[in-house]
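Hi Prof. W.,

I finally got the Pre-mRNA-splicing factor SPF27 homolog prediction working! I wasn't sure whether to trim anything, so I left the full sequence exactly as given:
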Amino acid sequence: MATNNGDVLMLEAAPQATKPWASAANAEVIDALPYIDDDYGNPLIKAEVDRLVEEEMRRSSRKPADFLKDLPPLPKFDFENCPVLGKEYERVRAGKPPVRIDFECRYKHELPPASKKNDDAAWKQYLHKTQRSLQQKMIELENLEMMSKHGPELWRQNNHRLEVFLTRMQRLAQEQNEEIEKVNRERKYHQQTTAYELNALSQEWRQLCVKNMEIQSACAMLETQIDSLKREAVERGWNLEEKLESVKSLQSQ
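And this is what came out:
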């Protein structure tokens, strides 16, 4: 509690943690009581709070980008064992689009031009491309046959696994919601049951503060009266110390 020449001013807030992320002991403590603190529901108070927040944000020298400066640095990624992944990581960082694989050019085959009609190498290359294209089509047909034969059952199994996974996730979500609701009910109960005690303590604190100020005001008035009486005694030539000693002697007898 801050004081200034014995006057009660206000309750000091706890010191702010310089690095809240460094230690759990420095974590910020939220002491809001939302179930009994209804001051923010008042439109006038809400408007005043919003105005103060906006004013503080305008005066603040810390910009939104500076809030990350207090956090620990990010780890450096090392792709020595996987250069392909490192190259892809740099591409994503640079914002470049992914390299598209051109399958049409790979399996596309055209007859050699008229100038190479008698070129054996050109015809061999055309033959190899045709074989690759034929092999690709055969693989596609095999995949279609396997999909038509085993695809429906695989889809049913996959759908069953997804349904089981969805059911489990829904059960977990329901359990978490029940835990959250339980905590909220307990918080509401404890806050509402202690609201009377908090209000009584707040009222007692205000009364004590008012009483302290009244006592200080009365003491100041008595001191002023005593000083005035002392000045009057001096003006009349009275020796107050002798009179006090005589009074003490009479009281002792």
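The radius of gyration is 43 Å. Does that look reasonable to you?

Thanks,
D.
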